[in-house]
């Protein structure tokens, strides 16, 4: 081991101490212990021997070479020295300073480029407008619900996804994303907190929870308040869009309840399992009500909790059975025509403003079946009375009435028809159901 010394003192006693401190034998062992050198020269209180020597000498280890400039590496004390040549990856102090400066300059350049890109993005956003009289019904209702959830932020300022928690029981970010993808709400980078947008490699990333949004301006230059008022007065015509919005909301309502039950019994479901359940519940909601599916979730989660206590089972294995149990439970209900019980909404589980708006427009709540909602949407949008629907039903109605009169059961048929309509089934389903019963 060889240490190259660069003296910063001319005091002979200090030079002697420094040389004794760094002196080694042929095997690389230090000749004198640090404790033996402590009293050679009087030092100020609190000053260590290593720091005293470091102030008066630069030491360079010949067994360590900078990979950048190939100069010897400066060491600060004995423990940093190496007995044999080392393959060095760490840079010397000067090269490290140069490297740090390059990195800092690159970061400053990227920060400036990010600022330029965001400013350019903001300028493009400011020129975008929306004709709110032409937006689909589902987007109009979603905006009305969002306005209620964050008043007055939607019409006077900006908002984040976190501000919208009152919109729906779950998947609030997905609902906001629907509006963003439709161009109805725009990002406002100037109002976002520092660090919201950042570089990851050569791509710009963002922290979604910190992104600030604002309502897109109107093509007719109406104020935001005027836009919201106009949405409240529209005539609804898009049955499919409204029903899908109800499904989106109802899935969120069901999954929020399922989450609470799983948390209560410490069931940890994977993302894939939750997506499977979500798909199953969405399909079931076309027939059943939210409150009925709460009862299914309640039963299945408790069955899984009981299963977890059995021999050869554990909680993760039991939780993994929940998606299949829900699917089989619903298959059995449909196959055996079992009437599902309806659960009441828990106090800690509010409907959200989207549920309130849907309730006011459609007259529905968590106890309204999917069949009934579909029928209500059809009537609201005029689809149930359209000429094409009437033409499509002409022949089935004529056939049903012919059979009913032939069997002298006209009164029974009309009563059954009314019963099915009250249950939420549409006219086509009711006619088909009664016709099959008469023919069997």
Give a written overview of the molecule.
With 440 residues, this protein is mainly α. The mean pLDDT is 89. The strands form 3 sheets. The chain has a 3-stranded antiparallel β-sheet, with helices on one face. A two-stranded antiparallel ribbon has the order 4-7. The longest helix has 34 residues, at 93-126. It is built from 17 helices and 7 strands. 54% of the residues lie in helices and 7% in strands. It is elongated.
Topology, please?
Blueprint: E1 3-7, H1 12-22, H2 34-37, H3 49-54, E2 57-65, E3 72-75, H4 93-126, H5 137-150, H6 172-181, E4 185-187, E5 197-200, E6 203-206, E7 213-215, H7 224-232, H8 239-264, H9 271-285, H10 290-308, H11 315-320, H12 322-335, H13 352-362, H14 370-381, H15 387-406, H16 410-422, H17 427-439
Antiparallel strand pairs: 1-2, 2-3, 4-7, 5-6
């Amino acid at each position: 081991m060889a240490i190259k010394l660069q003296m910063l003192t001319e005091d002979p006693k200090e030079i002697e101490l420094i040389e004794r401190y760094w002196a080694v034998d042929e095997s690389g062992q230090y000749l004198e212990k640090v404790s033996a050198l402590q009293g050679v020269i009087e030092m100020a209180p609190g000053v260590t021997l290593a720091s005293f020597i470091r102030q008066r000498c630069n030491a360079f280890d010949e067994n360590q070479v900078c990979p950048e400039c190939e100069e010897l590496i400066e060491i600060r004390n004995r423990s940093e020295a190496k007995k044999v040549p080392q393959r060095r990856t760490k840079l010397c102090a000067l090269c490290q300073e140069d490297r740090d400066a390059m990195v800092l300059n690159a970061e400053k350049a990227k920060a400036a480029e990010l600022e330029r890109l965001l400013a350019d993005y903001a300028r493009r956003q400011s020129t975008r407008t929306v004709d709110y009289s032409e937006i689909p019904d589902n987007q109009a209702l979603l905006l009305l619900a969002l306005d209620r959830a964050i008043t007055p932020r939607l019409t006077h300022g900006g908002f984040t996804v976190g501000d919208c928690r009152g919109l729906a029981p779950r998947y609030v970010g997905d609902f906001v994303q629907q509006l963003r993808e439709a161009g109805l709400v725009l990002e406002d980078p100037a109002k976002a907190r520092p660090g919201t947008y950042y570089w990851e490699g050569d791509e710009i990333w963002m922290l979604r929870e910190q992104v600030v949004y604002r309502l897109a301006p109107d093509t007719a230059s109406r104020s935001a308040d005027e836009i919201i008022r106009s949405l409240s007065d529209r005539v609804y015509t898009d049955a499919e869009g409204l029903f899908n919005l109800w499904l989106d909301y109802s899935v969120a309502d069901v999954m929020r309840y399922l989450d609470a039950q799983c948390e209560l019994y410490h069931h940890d479901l994977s993302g894939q399992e939750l997506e499977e359940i979500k798909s199953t519940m969405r399909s079931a909601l076309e027939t059943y009500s939210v409150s009925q599916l709460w009862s299914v979730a309640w039963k299945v989660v408790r069955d899984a909790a009981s299963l977890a206590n059995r021999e050869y089972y554990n909680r993760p294995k039991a939780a993994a059975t929940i998606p299949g149990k829900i699917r089989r439970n619903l298959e059995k209900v449909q196959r055996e025509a079992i009437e599902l019980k309806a659960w009441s909404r828990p106090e800690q589980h509010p409907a959200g403003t989207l549920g309130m708006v849907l309730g006011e427009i459609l007259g529905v709540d968590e106890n309204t079946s999917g069949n009934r909602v579909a029928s209500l949407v059809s009537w609201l949008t005029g689809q149930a009375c359209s000429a094409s629907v009437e033409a499509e039903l002409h022949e089935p109605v004529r056939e049903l009435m012919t059979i009913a009169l032939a069997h002298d059961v006209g009164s029974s048929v009309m009563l059954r028809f009314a019963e099915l309509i009250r249950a939420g089934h549409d006219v086509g389903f009711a006619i088909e159901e009664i016709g099959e019963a008469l023919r069997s």
